[in-house]
Amino acid sequence: FMGAREAVAAFTAIATMNLALYETLSGADRETMLVHDEYGPMTVDWIIYQEAGHQRHHFRQLQGMVGKG
After folding, report:
1. Kind and range of the H or E run holding 2
2. In this predicted model, what pLDDT tens digit does every residue of 7-65 receive, in sequence order?
3. How far apart are CA 52 and CA 46, in angstroms?
4. Which of 6, 19, 46, 67 has the fewest CB atoms within 10 Å, counting from its CB?
5. What angle in degrees, to the nearest 10, is found between the helix axes of 44-66 and 4-23?
6. Half-sphere exposure of residue 19, counting CA atoms within 13 Å on the CB side?
7. Alpha carbon 58 to chain centroid distance?
8. DSSP characters for 34-54?
9. How confident is the model at residue 18, as a pLDDT?
10. CA dihedral 25, 26, 27, 28 (to 10 degrees)
11. 14-23, pLDDT tens digit by residue?
12. CA–CA separation, 39 vs 19, rounded Å?
């Protein structure tokens, strides 16, 4: 079982790895179009933007758990 502090550390490590990957993408890479079965066409840039908001939401949840565990 992973505690809250370990979960925050793992989450942060994965977010850092993703950021390093995104920094290697060119503008053209980020404008690449993809099609999602439910949401339709989207760019890589849109996915990165959405993921950032999603990560902030979950990071706040994890931070709240740290003081409780």
Report:
1. none
2. 888 888 999 999 999 999 999 999 999 999 998 999 999 999 998 888 888 888 877 77
3. 10
4. 67
5. 160
6. 8
7. 9
8. EEETTTEEEEHHHHHHHHHHH
9. 93
10. -100
11. 999 999 999 9
12. 24
pLDDT at 27: 97
Phi, psi of 40 (to 5 degrees): 80, -155
User: What pairing do the DSSP bridges indicate for beta strands 40-43 and 33-36?
Assistant: antiparallel
Spell out the residues 6+ positions from residue 4 whose beta carbon is closer than 8 angstroms to its own.
62, 65, 66, 68, 69
Residue 43: strand pairing partners:
33
**CB-based contact 62:7 (threshold 8 Å):** yes
